Amino acid sequence: MRIAGNFLSLTHTPIAGLHYGMQILTNTGGMAMTNSHMVADEIAKQAVIFDAPDNTVAPLLDEAVKHGWDVIGLWLTHGHFDHFADHPVVRRRFPNAKFLIHKSEALKTAQPELQTRLFRLSIEIEPLKVDAYVIDNQVLQIGSMKVQVIFTPGHAPGHVCYYFPNEKLLIGGDLIIGGSVGRTDLPDSNHSDMEASLRRVMALPPETRLLGGHGPATTLAHERQTNYFLRDFLDNP
Ligand SMILES: [Zn+2]
Ligand SMILES: [Zn+2]
């Protein structure tokens, strides 16, 4: 398991802008090498899992148990199979965790067979029961950390990012990934929505840390400089 940003407790060096007690653990796996991020408030002993790729979430839940954290949620960026397949693992071990997603993605998670057919997958995925739908600008909470929902359609019609304004951290899903941007050639993708979403997220502070759905942790400033696909969207309207 890769530790994406266990900034404070490993080093005990306060870093400006980061909430004291914030812990971030990432595990990458599944058929599409997808990131599952767990963000915890060590003081409040609460954690949330962002996205649940196939065969990837269990080690994060083990860590949560080890630290005595209550996993209060599985908050999904969108409904592609590689981002939610492991949801029964979370439900089994933390039955009270709230499963959140944008309403426009709910069909994909309620009927996983649509995707297993489309992508000719060899795995079976259980239908996901959503506890609540997130909407744009909704403010959620993990312990004492505020998390803002940013509606970012394009790659998928109900794609959202989760933004920690005080910690300047963005859980970005498949908006900006691994030096590229999320694909927009899928049946329910939309290229011009994608452009608007990229512009909106790139208006956040450049020092914002970005934990995407695939690839290593980065910052918005680094992506602005180095991500050719992103620049293409931003510079050629
Ligand atoms: Zn996706
Ligand atoms: Zn993905």
Give a topology summary.
Elements: H1 7-11, E1 22-29, E2 34-41, E3 46-50, H2 58-67, E4 70-75, H3 81-84, H4 87-93, E5 98-102, H5 106-110, H6 113-118, E6 132-134, E7 139-142, E8 145-151, E9 160-164, E10 169-173, E11 176-177, E12 180-181, H7 191-202, E13 209-212, E14 218-219, H8 220-226, H9 228-235
Parallel strand pairs: 3-4, 4-5, 5-6, 10-13
Antiparallel strand pairs: 1-2, 2-3, 7-8, 8-9, 9-10, 11-12, 13-14
Bound molecules: zinc ion (2 copies).
What does this protein look like?
With 237 residues, the chain is an alpha/beta fold. The protein has one domain: Ribonuclease Z/Hydroxyacylglutathione hydrolase-like (Metallo-beta-lactamase, Chain A), CATH 3.60.15. It contains nine helices and 14 strands. It has helices spanning 7-11, 58-67, 81-84, 87-93, 106-110, 113-118, 191-202, 220-226, 228-235, and strands at 22-29, 34-41, 46-50, 70-75, 98-102, 132-134, 139-142, 145-151, 160-164, 169-173, 176-177, 180-181, 209-212, 218-219.
Summary keywords:
single chain; alpha/beta; 9 helices; Metallo-beta-lactamase, Chain A; 6-stranded mixed β-sheet; 14 strands; 237 residues; globular; binds zinc ion; 27% helix
